[in-house]
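Sequence in, structure out. Go.
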Amino acid sequence: MKRLRVIGLLLLVAVAVAAQPRLRQPELYFGVQAGVNAAAMDFYPAVPLMTPITQAVTLSPLGGFVFRYSGQKCCAVQVELNYMQRGWAEKGTETSSGTAVAYARRLHYIELPVLMHIYFGKKVARGFINLGPQIGYCIADDKGTGTRQTVREQQYAAIDNRFDWGVTGGLGMSFRTMNAGSYMVEARFGYSFGTIFSSNLTDYFQSSRPMNLSIHVGWLWEFKKK
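Output:
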């Protein structure tokens, strides 16, 4: 039901966007972006030593390519191809010595977000909202590093599903220059509907969904007709 609500909201936004007046001259951008990603997992049943949420976060770099096309006023379509790490961390204390110990696991993804880019403001400085679905594929799994924190093996097993899908959205600002392209900064949250471990009734985890919060900067160049 939750997924249907999200999809319905995206459709309503798409209809509102399509109703905007068209630009006299479409805007076309291509560029790159990079930043920092804070990733965690939504496990059910919960995994011990992953609360508070700040204790369960892994930090990693991200980067990718951005393509944006705007044919209507105040809105555009933005497609990205990104590299991003997901995963989680567990932190605890060794019983015998009282020493702090930790475990972290990182999953390496190639992701393809397809976003509605809604912007507002002047031609030079604009605020914007990005919202839309994304798909991804896990290209590598580091199998985890550090000290395993529980005797259970479920969260340390090989992942069952490498394909991922979900939604993402962000808020940001962009600044256009005369001859040096457009610069942007954005904070974005992503949540997956897919699970990394099998979630059948006979499986241990009923939910194992990645989520992430990222901050990134980008540089885009506008292609203009001569």
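Check: Helices lie at 2-18. DSSP finds one helix and nine strands in the chain.
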